[in-house]
Each structure stands twice: as structure tokens, then as C-alpha cells.
Amino acid sequence: MSPTTAPAPPIGRNTAAMGVRATARVTAAARAGATVLPVLDGDGPFEFRRLRSRGTEARVCVVGAMSAPLGGDRLRIEATARQGASLHITSAAATLALRGPTAAHATYDVHLTVAEHAELRWLPKPLISAAGSNLRQTWTIDLAPTARLVLREEQVLGRMGEPPGHVATRLTVRRGGHVLLDQEADYGPGAPGWDTPAVLGHHRTTGQILLVDPDFDENPREPQVLTESPEDGQAVLTPLAGPATLITALAPDGLRLRHILNAAYSTSADGSNRARK
């Protein structure tokens, strides 16, 4: 190496100014009455593990290979369900957003594509926003007109006994090229009014389940309050302007939030299944 040649950057987590750049990809395809995974490429902090299939559904677990996201990281997952495929994605543990070696925010982008007559279920563990963290998370979802989607996302604002970090989220869903849902949320230090009665109040966890199903065109759901005690958490089912239903919930802690969302999803899924019969 000549005196003027700079050394190559180390592999793995880069300098404080750069953070980790990683894009992981999974693709599901229908084949011979089952769903196979022709693409299963982990990257950076993301490793994919095949789980035992259930019927025609292929199942994948996202396993964290390093602490992430930290400040300055740029992380992305791309998942595609091709025509007729059925894909279920979960995670081995909660995602923990931490303060990094730089003041720059981290990004965590999820891009889901679901083709005709395909189904994708995105059901990871919660995101925990630790004190001092700063994360921008996005979901960008493109659905064919006959596609089905179940998407769950949960945020836990702060670990036990600590204040939360800052997390800004955006969820954009397009069906047949038209926008079905486009929403943003902002929680933690620097977010106006996030802990007031107009937003979360005393609650420190929030989440939602989005169900997109062509059957809702013929059998739309009715708006419904799904909980009885606001102090223990609240959940509301809202039909969207399209074949979709959005369940939104908030609760004092992650365990209660998961219980509320599970109960709300069971109620909604039972109604959808009855409508199909």
C-alpha cells in the first residue's frame, strides 16, 4: 500500500458518523401447492431463520445479530409475497432502539410487497424506545387488489424505570396503486403533546393491527370500542375507506398492550372468517 492510500473501512459497524447500512430481503413464491423461499438474505443486524411451515404458509423469524438500531444506523427489510404465496414473518425478540455513538437519528424501513392472491402476515415483537434513542421507522406497503395483509406494530416508550427515547413512525399502504392508508405518529422528547390526554396520556405503550382483506368489500366491519376500562388500556376498531380494518390500542405497559391487541385481533379475525364461509 502506498503512503497516500487510505485503509479500507472495517467490516461490521462503521464509524460513529456512518453507522450500519444494511438491507435484508425475503421473497416467498407459490410452488406445487406450498410456499417456498427463493430469496432469504440477511444483512447487518438481521438474520433470517426458516420456521416450520403451517399448511401452505412459509414462516420466517428475524433474529438480531447485533445491537441495533443505534444512532446513525440505516436499516431496511424488504419482503415480497409473489402471486399465490403465503408468508408469515415474526421476530425472535423485541427490537431495542438505543442511543448510538452519534447524535444522528437511526432509520428502520420496512417495505412489503404482496402480489395477486398472496398473503403476508407481518407480526414481529414490539419496538422498545430506550432513553436517549432517536429512531425514524417507516412501513411502505404495496398490495395487489386481491392481496391480503395482517400487520401488527407496537411501541414501548422506555424501559422499566426510565424515560422514553424519541420515535417517529410513518405507515403508507397502497392497494392497486391507490393510497389506502397514510399516517404518521411522533412520541417521546421533542414530540409536541405526545404525553397529553389528546394522545397517550399516562399510557406508555401503543400499537395497532391493520387487516386488509378483499372480503371486507362485501362484509365491512362496524366501528367498535373493544375495551371497557380506559385506565387499563383502550382499543378501537375502525373500518377504512377500502377493504381494510384498523385496530388501534394503547396501554400502560407492553404486557397489557399485547393482551388487548391479541383479544381485538381474535374478535376481528373471527368476524372475517365467518364472513368468508
UniProtKB/TrEMBL annotation:
Alphabetically ordered keywords of this record: Chaperone, Cytoplasm, Nickel insertion
Protein name (Swiss-Prot/TrEMBL): Urease accessory protein UreD
InterPro entries associated with the record: UreD
Subunit comment: UreD, UreF and UreG form a complex that acts as a GTP-hydrolysis-dependent molecular chaperone, activating the urease apoprotein by helping to assemble the nickel containing metallocenter of UreC. The UreE protein probably delivers the nickel.
Family per record: Belongs to the UreD family.
Coiled-coil regions listed in the entry: none
Stored Pfam families: UreD (PF01774)
